[in-house]
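[Discussion] Sanity-checking designs against the backbone

I'm trying to build intuition for which residues belong where. Below is a structure token string of 1006 positions. I'd appreciate it if someone posts a full sequence so I can compare it with mine line by line.
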């Protein structure tokens, strides 16, 4: 029996996905069910053997998460990823000629090590045995089969790295498919077969796995000072023959890293080339591996070009590169930065220039990025993410039990004002210093926030403030809190979210709404819940190598309090942003024994079934107070003495408010008002005025600037004790201004403070999600045609949209059965929806039409819009029915959509096959006449793969196709028998990866 391997808690084992070259991972290449069972059995034995060897039998589930061999990488911030081999430009076709040019060009191992150190990289991953670089081996090898050098380049690099404290990790590929790229055969099956004494085809996965298995063994024997292997996906032969277990046995101190897959026996999960985040540098927002798993972000530093040197001196975006570096450090993710050495080993000039810059730029702030952990997660620290006035950044904390007493606030995107305000997560601050300049900073702390004031010296990439604290205090110990839930997945009970252990978590088992009840043991005072959701999903919908992903974080919630667990009072409701890091739900103040968090909805949508309605929470802590309010007052407090208060306006205590107070009594009109008498503006123009207010019921405030007519500002219902924010655009003159705030409501909201900052750039549009159905080209027959169109606009940012209108914009002659749907305003998480039946002009064919569905809205007085299209095309003359694979009418299982420029609708469906779930279903395939028809399948493929095609639940027909590149759509056809009316067609392959699918269509009856 093969040696077993099981998924060890708390790992999330991701589904198979293709890598950067379009290859699918092991689970989509062979029978997943059989291999999963085999892998589980292997892991059982491997875990027991390892545990016995290191004395950890009592806790095998944590053996691969925490191990002494991992400590050097945990201490690391970054690594250098070098793709360099025989096909580095200019491409060599002869191994000896490549080695000659390497040596004569002056290749030096010390050069690479020195460049790594400039980047603060404590390790180098060398990718030479790479499928696109000629499978070259930079060492003298006794195992024939591909290029191997006579000079021991790898040995020189290992020695140079050891001398200067830089670890060397060897990249290994699983994949032979590029063995004949550009007509150059790089794998020598005959030589390897002679070496083994039997025929072995290295161009097959099994043969290549056997060959590379021998190379693993050789590298372990020759280079004991290597630090491990970086494995670009798994090969079946390796797993079947216990390769990883053998590595553990022979080199127990070496690390194993895997690309894009969370495999339990691996030490590290690498997340490749994530893009499309907001801000673009916020790499962690797309990572799906929860702490404390060792995690890498591997990405290219050059903004264009290949992963290897292609002859170009490509630009390095310093803003993007430094931003990724810092945000990864702020999430305990290692930055594995890819650069592209030339044949002689030297880096192109722009990459050298960036490395020189980094060496100098990091030096003044190195204590904030080296030897630290990400703040705002399991290691403590203040809240990262979006802050005030457009600011964005992360927090790092020292390592160790009291490491979070010293924190570093990294302002990567500076605010439009002169202060930074972030959630303090219960830490009491005693000193703030600009780490680059040494300047002692003024700060104010109250209401659960730290505000760093009077900032004028901004670094263009990262302004770092060293924040010294007296620790984190006002939280009840988890040992005194019990937890129950209305639903829990087996093995992940509610007790796990109150056990103080971030390696265990509660899983809601897919139930929504769902509630968690916390028992404090006796009636106690509570002010907030600190919710650490498991960081296993991205913050927003995206696709990674065709795998649909979305946020599994809390959206809408309610909090209740009770003294006896029977009679409940709602103390807070609202919407949490989809963001990383701890989320604090301030409930003002309540005396209760029981607190219930009811989760009404999550952010993710059904297009990502792995994450849809799948809530996981690491820990929930209960606060009983707030950090001490400082004497330094925040600017523009409503209760400030310099303001003029009239009528019934008065100051009251408010623990969650800045300064610990607010003003009440604003209702009844202008006679009850607060006037700011000297609000300063640097120049005349429009500014963003933010009002922080409290209100139990929906209400409004009115704002008059310099005596002008007041502007009414809607106030949402919330908590009477916890402030919310609303912003409007107001005109200010240079110098002093007066701002009068009142309410025309009978009983107006409370006012905590106002804040003024420049407006965002004119290009600014808050993040929204516009979902339009149908998705995909709509193929229609002759004559007049009608389509049902649905659309939904959701606001994803903590902002406000005004005057929202959503409707299709029809081409000439087209009609719709209704007008725009509208909303006066939208706040975070709110949605406006509409449905229309649109009809083409009468008396003619519908033809081709692109129909935009557009949402128009106002943001701070500026008009904005977002749009998507419904595209209609006429059926080809020889077809009676056609549908794109990406059409929203289809059922996708665990497959996913990806862009495909040459494909008929610009998209295709990939990740078909390898399991029962990785299948597509085309329902409602309507034909006028029953009988035999021709089914046309448009596909792309690299190599030889097969579809299984089943009609109306009947037996499947195997359709095998062959091509190269996986980029050019081809067509194959099979006869099928259909019934008159609606039919269902299933495209699958339960055991192996299938081709990617572009479109299905039906020909005329044969």
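Best answer:
Here's mine. Compare freely.
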């Amino acid at each position: 029996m093969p040696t077993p391997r099981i998924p060890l808690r708390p790992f999330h084992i991701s589904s198979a996905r293709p890598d950067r070259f379009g290859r699918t991972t092991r689970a989509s290449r062979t029978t997943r069910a059989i291999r999963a069972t085999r892998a589980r059995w292997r892991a059982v034995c491997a875990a027991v053997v390892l545990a016995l060897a290191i004395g950890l039998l009592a806790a095998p589930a944590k053996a691969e998460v925490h191990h002494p061999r991992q400590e050097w990488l945990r201490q690391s911030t970054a690594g250098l990823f070098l793709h360099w081999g025989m096909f580095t430009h200019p491409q060599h076709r002869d191994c000896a000629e490549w080695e000659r040019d390497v040596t004569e060009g002056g290749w030096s191992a010390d050069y690479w090590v020195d460049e790594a150190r400039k980047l603060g990289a404590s390790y180098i991953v060398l990718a030479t045995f790479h499928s696109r670089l000629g499978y070259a081996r930079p060492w003298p090898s006794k195992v024939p089969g591909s290029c191997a050098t006579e000079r021991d380049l790898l040995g020189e690099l290992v020695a140079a790295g050891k001398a200067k404290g830089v670890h060397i990790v060897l990249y290994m590929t699983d994949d032979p498919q590029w063995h004949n790229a550009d007509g150059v055969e790089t794998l020598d099956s005959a030589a390897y077969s002679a070496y083994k004494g039997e025929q072995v085809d290295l161009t097959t996965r099994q043969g290549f796995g056997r060959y590379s298995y021998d190379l693993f063994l050789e590298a372990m024997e020759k280079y004991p000072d290597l630090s491990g292997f970086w494995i670009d996906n798994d090969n079946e032969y390796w797993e079947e023959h216990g390769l990883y277990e053998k590595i553990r046995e022979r080199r127990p101190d070496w690390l194993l890293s895997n690309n894009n897959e969370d495999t339990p026996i691996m030490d590290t999960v690498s997340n490749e080339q994530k893009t499309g985040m907001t801000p673009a540098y916020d790499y962690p927002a797309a990572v799906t591996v929860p702490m404390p798993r060792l995690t890498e972000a591997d990405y290219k530093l050059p903004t264009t070009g290949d992963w290897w040197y292609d002859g170009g001196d490509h630009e390095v975006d310093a803003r993007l590169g430094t931003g990724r570096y810092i945000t990864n450090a702020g999430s305990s993710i290692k930055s594995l930065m890819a650069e592209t050495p030339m044949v002689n080993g030297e880096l192109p000039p722009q990459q050298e220039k960036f490395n020189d810059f980094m060496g100098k730029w990091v030096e003044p702030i190195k204590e904030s990025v080296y030897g630290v952990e990400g703040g705002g997660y399991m290691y403590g620290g203040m809240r990262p993410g979006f802050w005030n006035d457009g600011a964005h950044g992360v927090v790092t904390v020292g390592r160790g039990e009291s490491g979070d007493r010293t924190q570093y606030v990294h302002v990567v995107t500076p605010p439009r004002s002169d202060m930074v305000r972030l959630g303090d997560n219960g830490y009491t601050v005693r000193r703030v210093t600009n780490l680059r300049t040494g300047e002692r900073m003024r700060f104010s702390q109250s209401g659960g926030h730290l505000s760093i004031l009077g900032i004028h010296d901004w670094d263009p990439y990262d302004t770092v403030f060293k924040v010294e604290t007296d620790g984190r205090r006002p939280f009840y110990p988890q040992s005194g809190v019990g937890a129950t839930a209305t639903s829990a997945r087996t093995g992940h009970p509610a007790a796990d979210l109150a056990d103080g252990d971030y390696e265990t978590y509660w899983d809601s088992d897919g139930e929504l709404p769902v509630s968690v009840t916390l028992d404090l043991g006796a009636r106690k005072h509570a002010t907030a819940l600190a919710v650490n959701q498991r960081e296993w999903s991205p913050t927003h919908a995206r696709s990674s190598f065709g795998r649909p992903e979305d946020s599994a974080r809390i959206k809408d919630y309610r909090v209740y309090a009770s003294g006896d667990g029977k009679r409940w009072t709602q103390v807070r409701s609202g919407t949490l942003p989809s963001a990383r890091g701890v989320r604090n739900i301030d409930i003002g103040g309540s005396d209760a024994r029981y607190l219930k968090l009811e989760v009404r909805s999550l952010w993710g949508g059904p297009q990502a079934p792995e994450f849809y309605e799948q809530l996981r929470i690491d820990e929930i802590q209960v606060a009983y107070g707030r950090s001490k309010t400082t004497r330094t007052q925040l600017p523009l407090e409503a209760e400030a003495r310099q303001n003029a208060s009239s009528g019934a306006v008065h100051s009251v205590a408010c623990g969650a408010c800045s300064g610990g107070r607010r003003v009440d009594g604003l209702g009844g009109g202008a006679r009850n008002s607060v006037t700011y008498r000297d609000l300063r503006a640097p120049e005349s123009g429009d500014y963003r005025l933010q009002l922080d207010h409290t209100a139990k019921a929906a209400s409004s405030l009115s704002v008059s600037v310099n005596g002008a007519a007041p502007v009414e500002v809607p106030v949402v219902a919330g908590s009477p004790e916890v402030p919310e924010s609303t912003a409007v655009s107001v005109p200010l003159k240079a110098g002093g201004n007066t701002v009068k705030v009142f309410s025309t409501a009978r009983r107006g909201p409370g006012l905590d403070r106002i804040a003024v900052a420049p407006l965002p750039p004119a290009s600014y549009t808050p993040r929204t999600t516009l979902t339009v159905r149908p998705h995909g080209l709509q193929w229609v027959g002759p004559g007049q045609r009608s389509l049902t169109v649905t659309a939904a606009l959701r606001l994803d940012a903590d902002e406000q949209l005004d005057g929202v209108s959503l409707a299709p914009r029809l081409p000439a002659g087209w009609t719709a059965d209704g007008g725009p749907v509208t909303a006066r305003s939208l706040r975070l998480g709110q949605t406006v929806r509409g449905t229309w039946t649109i009809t083409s002009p009468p008396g003619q064919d519908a033809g081709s039409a692109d129909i935009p569905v557009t949402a128009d809205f106002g943001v701070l007085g500026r008009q904005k819009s977002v749009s998507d299209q419904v595209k209609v095309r006429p059926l080809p003359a020889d077809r009676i029915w056609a549908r794109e694979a990406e059409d929203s009418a289809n059922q996708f299982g665990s497959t996913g959509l990806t862009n495909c420029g040459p494909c008929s609708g610009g998209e295709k469906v990939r990740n078909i096959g390898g399991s029962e779930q990785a299948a597509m279903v085309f329902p409602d395939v309507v034909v006028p006449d029953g009988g035999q028809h021709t089914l046309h399948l448009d596909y792309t493929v690299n190599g030889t793969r097969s579809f299984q095609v089943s009609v109306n639940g009947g037996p499947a027909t195997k359709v095998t196709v062959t091509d190269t590149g996986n980029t050019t759509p081809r067509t194959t056809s099979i006869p099928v028998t259909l019934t008159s009316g609606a039919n269902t067609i299933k495209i699958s392959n339960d055991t192996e990866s299938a081709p990617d699918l572009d479109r299905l269509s039906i020909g005329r009856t044969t």
